[in-house]
Amino acid sequence: MDRWTEYELFVTITELGSLSKAAEALGLSNAAASRHLAALEDRLGARLIERSTRRLFVTEVGKDFYINSKAALQTMQGATDAVSATKSHPMGVLRITASLSLCLQHILPLLPKFNQQYPDVRLDIVAENRYYDIIDDNIDVALRTRESEPDTSLVVRRLTDTRRMLAASPDYLSRYGSPKHPKALADHQLLLYTYATAPYEMFFQRDEESITISTKASLESNDGQLLRAAALQGLGILAQPTYVIYDDIVAGRLIPVLTDWSLPRLAINLVYTSRLHLPAKTRAFIDFIVKEFQHLD
């Protein structure tokens, strides 16, 4: 039998002073209520309620058990209400992870608007270029630039995709010139991102023509912002998603090269544990970020 039903029945009997009234209040038959009460007393090895055909009263040990049972039921009800609240109202700590560049360029600028819409949600942002384990590291939502996940139980939702561009500073190009063909990159200083799918190869396409070249780095790093800083200092040509270097290109601090060739686009996906019983805070962030990214070029 359900132990919580037994506790609830005992508390209700004590408060109403009647087994039949307690049974009616809980939607039980008198026979079922009697079995629940008997099972509770047998398990405890104590008489909680003395009853006869005419009257019912709670024993001394029953009075103590009533106080503790009442407190336990109230605690459980509070816990249940808290869970229900998180399902209907966005609240609590939301732990998200993305690369440092994505956090700086596209998540951080949206936080004031998100905070205004969902003031009861507190964000814990893990800015990291490596991929955290969603479950083991207690991640609610990850933004990732890879097509699939090794854990097939995770939900992978396409958010958008982005171009990758080659660019260098005006100072570097004035000293070394601008490459006219992908093969010419062998004569240049390259700044390579080591977390790329194939960091030492570049696949180029132009119309029906395609070419794959092997690359050698003069500087390599696992962080796009470090490579961006190196490119701004004239240390070489980098290949990065447009969201990392867009502002620099618009401002003229970096100049695109080999613009008639294209590199494979990167998918940006949302990754989370399940669509089933998704907390309101997680659903709110997903819906918010999807809507905001629709406005981006």
From TrEMBL:
Molecular function GO labels: DNA-binding transcription factor activity; sequence-specific DNA binding
Transmembrane portions of the chain: none
Gene Ontology BP annotations: DNA-templated transcription
Domain HTH lysR-type: 8-59
Keywords noted in UniProt: DNA-binding, Transcription, Transcription regulation
Top-level lineage group: Bacteria
One Pfam entry name: LysR_substrate
Coiled-coil regions, chain positions: none
Family label: Belongs to the LysR transcriptional regulatory family.
PANTHER family listed in its UniProt record: HTH-TYPE TRANSCRIPTIONAL ACTIVATOR TTDR-RELATED, HTH-TYPE TRANSCRIPTIONAL REGULATOR
Name used for this protein in its record: DNA-binding transcriptional regulator, LysR family
